[in-house]
Amino acid sequence: MPDININVKAAGEDLDIGRFGLGQGGFTNNAQFDSHIQDLKNLNHKYLRVFVQEYFNVYPAHNVYNWELLDKMVKAILATGAKPILCICIKPKVLFPKNDENIIHPNNYKEWDKLIYEMVKHYKKMGVNMWEVLNESDAGQWGGAPYHTKPEDYAIFYEHIARAAKKADPKARLGGPAVSNASKEGSKITPYLLQYCSDKKLPFDFLTWHRYADNPLRIKESIVTMKNLLKKYPKIKCETGITEWSASFAANYMKYTKNPAYMPNFIIESIYHMVEEGLSFCNYYHIRNLNFTEDIFKEWISKKVLSTFGWCNYCFTHLSLFDYQGQVRPAYFAFKLLSRLAGKRLRIYDVNGNVKVLAAYEEDFKMVNALIWNFAAEKPKKETINLNIFKAEKGDWRYTRYLLDVETNSSEEDKKLKIVTRKIFKAAAQVKETFLLEPYGITQVNFKKI
Questions:
Q1: How many domains does one find in the chain?
Q2: Residues in contact with 223: Cβ distance below 8 Å, sequence separation at least 6, in sequence order
Q3: What pTM does this model have?
Q4: pLDDT at 160 over 70
Q5: What is the span of the domain harbouring residue 195?
Q6: Which of 311, 339, 367 is the last residue in one of the domains?
Q7: Sign of torsion over alpha carbons 263, 266, 268, 271
Q8: What share of the chain is helix, strand, coil (3-state, %, to 5)?
């Protein structure tokens, strides 16, 4: 029977929950989520990551720049209120004539550097200043991008982009290497890159990697691993970001079909560990499921990899916030509940086991928001919760508790986030409630002075 005691006077640092944002997989060259802009804006995210893939055709010929398609994507991101993180994965035919993932360097670095310079300069005007260099180059084409690098090649490639980007925009922020596996200190690429940037005093603003896992503890472990790695390079002062993460495809498919509450719980539990371990930002994979379009990939991805990617059109997955038809999924409401945690974090020290809490106090509105969930990698048990919010400023308070209903067929927010308790407390400074929380149950409490 967990006791949850929330001391309103124990506010600490700003929780800044919006830094835990979203990303969209590189499946097509249209805006991909333009029909969900208002829904995404409602989440108050700070970052949204996308691939700058070859299908945007930004460099169709020598000294010819084409920003039309990528502009549409960047404008869609900005319309959500988020800051774009653009991951550079392009391989223009004029600079990489052969379709070979192991060819890392362009045939003319002077021309390549000019392309990067012009691209960064163009998007600087639109407020873009975060650039990630390559995507899962330790995995090569299997990571969805046409580069399979050795550590020394990645470092040289990164240096060219970093120098060209800084020349175009001194305030540009550079990062990487977005490896697919953070174990073993992030593959050999990450430590080599950190040493290289340290020795050459290259700009390095954020260290990134990816993690798909059956258990949120694996995501936590990746953060610990990478932060320990960074300690070996004291000259590197940078942020840390997981620019792709989610449940593994297999676990997601099996566990979600058994219980649709699994994914929203997985998301909240994972972000809880990110908060605890001091991760700077993340990009959840991903916003909307889309069918894979072979035609826009076939010029720069091998046939073998193309056939595997085609599997995405036949295996229904639940990683996204919106399904193939654009219908909202319970995962969206996990982020909606998290977005309500505005203000200073309220530490809760006496909760353990499967039930966890994230809580914040917003001074301007005299409002406490607490998110409580009951998660385990294997099914948790039903819990009786004794909630006690105390040391609030004395006055009249309204107490509301919401419950995420994953079973309802309605996608309306007031049906998904249904009110189960609402009371007014006169001349109070404290509120108590005892309630049951089912396995994978998610409830949110709002305690506001009126």
A1: 2
A2: 240, 242, 273, 274, 277, 278, 279
A3: 0.96
A4: yes
A5: 17-339
A6: 339
A7: negative
A8: 35, 30, 40
